[in-house]
């Protein structure tokens, strides 16, 4: 990152947690700082349990990094790999994040602190599989880092790398459809809203996958079914320019609801704004002085809410609802909560300018189905081979990246997914991977100026097919035996 001009600044502390009773807790990746914070609520043995919680998170992290974020799962049989099956029973996939945290922390206060991270996935901690404790492990073991100048510095760096490699970025060129061959079995380019046709050997779609299937391709039963899959939550997000510093806020602040479970039920079952929301507040100028002019502040407030539901008789909000009223009510509630819990005063008067994103914004500007900010949900039945594939099943030369395909949501995960899809494209073209150190020298891509001279390679999948059949039988027997033990 540094070689591309991105300077990373470590956030310490990681978070300030504000509770409903005006108690506060500071979370840090520094164990010496965490020990008294944990023991204050959990007693002398609490810190040992915290370390055990991190150890479980480490196991989940290593499994996910090694077996999921570097591998594709194009079919059910791809989940039968021996390397995956031998480790999968050691990670936390059956119980929820909240259930797993409850095995380590005695107090509900700490259980909340270490499960709110499920919202990174747009999921409730009572529904998100326990394996996602890897998120907390990553933050507390490796720290939280902020790119000086804001996250767009990372985007700029990626763009510059692409330009050096010869990428031509055509901005402000919305795509209206994917161009198919006459028999609709191959993607051959795209059609822009301007009417211009661009021919291509490969079409790689980074629009949200559900949107792409339902708006850029011919309608099918599968495309309709995607729109019915569970989506992640939406949000009302405020972006405030403040005419003074709000000293009471740290860089990262989380405000937790008193009725924690009920607040998530409001979001994911009732599809609405919780009566008492848990929410996140970011003040980047605490880390990066370039984030706001001297003596002033820039504040981001993210309030998770239910996604849109256009069903006439369904729960939740519709795009036609009075969003000005809803936003106004949420703004008042958020400001009142921040002031009461932190001691800050007159926040509303200090807001010099404001921008707001709401579910309809996420849907209209970013093409996110139902305004779900993190794409499709990523529960067990929407992960690995059950998740929409990175390659279209019937249209050749058509691939996908992003939050709603494998491996899932979040910027780091989507970047890992981009590499997975790139490798899939190269494999389909029988082209060697430039970054593969394991490849024989005669099969490696050779760097020549700004272009790549690559050699085509072949594959032998006979043995792999028999392995798939064998491990499918093993897994089937294991599942049957487990069901007998559980249900008698």
TrEMBL record:
**Is Translocase a UniProt keyword of this protein?**
no
Question: What is the designated name of this protein?
Answer: Amine oxidase domain-containing protein
Biological source species: Orbilia blumenaviensis
GO molecular function annotations of the record: oxidoreductase activity
Amine oxidase domain spans which residues? 102-425
- Domain of life, per UniProt, equals Eukaryota
Which keywords annotate this record?
A: Carotenoid biosynthesis, Membrane, Oxidoreductase, Transmembrane, Transmembrane helix
The entry's family comment says: Belongs to the carotenoid/retinoid oxidoreductase family.
């Amino acid at each position: 990152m540094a070689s591309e001009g991105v300077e990373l600044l470590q956030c310490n502390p990681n978070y300030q947690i504000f509770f409903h009773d005006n108690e506060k807790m500071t979370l840090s990746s520094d164990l010496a700082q965490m020990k008294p914070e944990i023991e204050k609520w959990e007693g002398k043995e609490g810190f040992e349990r915290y370390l055990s919680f991190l150890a479980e998170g480490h196991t989940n992290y290593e499994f996910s990094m090694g077996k999921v974020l570097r591998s594709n799962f194009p079919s059910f049989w791809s989940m039968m790999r021996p390397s995956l099956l031998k480790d999968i029973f050691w990670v936390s996939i059956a119980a929820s994040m909240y259930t797993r945290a409850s095995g380590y922390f005695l107090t509900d206060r700490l259980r909340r602190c270490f499960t709110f991270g499920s919202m990174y996935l747009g999921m409730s901690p009572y529904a998100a599989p326990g394996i996602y404790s890897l998120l907390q492990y990553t933050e507390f073991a490796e720290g939280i880092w902020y790119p000086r100048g804001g996250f767009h510095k990372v985007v700029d760096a990626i763009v510059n790398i692409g330009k050096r490699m010869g990428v031509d970025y055509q901005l402000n060129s919305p795509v209206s459809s994917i161009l198919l061959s006459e028999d609709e079995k191959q993607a051959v380019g795209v059609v822009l809203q301007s009417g211009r046709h661009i021919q291509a050997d490969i079409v790689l779609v980074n629009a949200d996958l559900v949107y792409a299937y339902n708006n850029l391709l011919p309608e099918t039963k599968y495309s309709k079914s995607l729109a019915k899959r569970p989506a992640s939550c939406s949000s009302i997000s405020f972006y405030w320019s403040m005419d003074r510093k709000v000293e009471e806020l740290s860089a990262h602040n989380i405000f937790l609801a008193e009725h924690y479970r009920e607040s998530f039920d409001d979001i994911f079952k009732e599809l609405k704004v919780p009566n008492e929301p848990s929410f996140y507040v970011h003040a980047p100028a605490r880390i990066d002085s370039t984030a706001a002019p001297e003596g002033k502040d820039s504040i981001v407030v993210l309030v998770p809410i239910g996604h849109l539901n256009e069903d006439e008789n369904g729960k939740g909000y519709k795009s036609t609802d009075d969003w000005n009223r809803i936003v106004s009510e949420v703004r008042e509630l958020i400001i009142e909560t921040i002031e009461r819990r932190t001691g800050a005063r007159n926040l509303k008067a200090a807001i010099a300018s404001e921008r707001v994103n709401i579910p309809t914004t996420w849907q209209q500007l970013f093409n996110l189905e139902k305004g779900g900010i993190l794409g499709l949900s990523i529960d067990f039945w929407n992960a690995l081979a059950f998740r929409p594939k990175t390659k279209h099943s019937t249209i050749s030369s058509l691939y996908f990246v992003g939050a709603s395909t494998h491996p899932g949501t979040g910027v780091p995960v989507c970047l890992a997914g981009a590499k997975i899809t790139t490798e899939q494209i190269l494999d389909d073209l029988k082209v060697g991977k430039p970054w593969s150190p394991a490849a024989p020298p005669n099969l490696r891509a050779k760097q020549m100026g700004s272009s790549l001279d690559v050699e085509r390679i072949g594959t032998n999948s006979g043995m792999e097919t028999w392995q798939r059949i064998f491990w499918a039988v093993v897994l089937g027997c294991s599942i049957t035996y487990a069901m007998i033990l559980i249900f008698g």
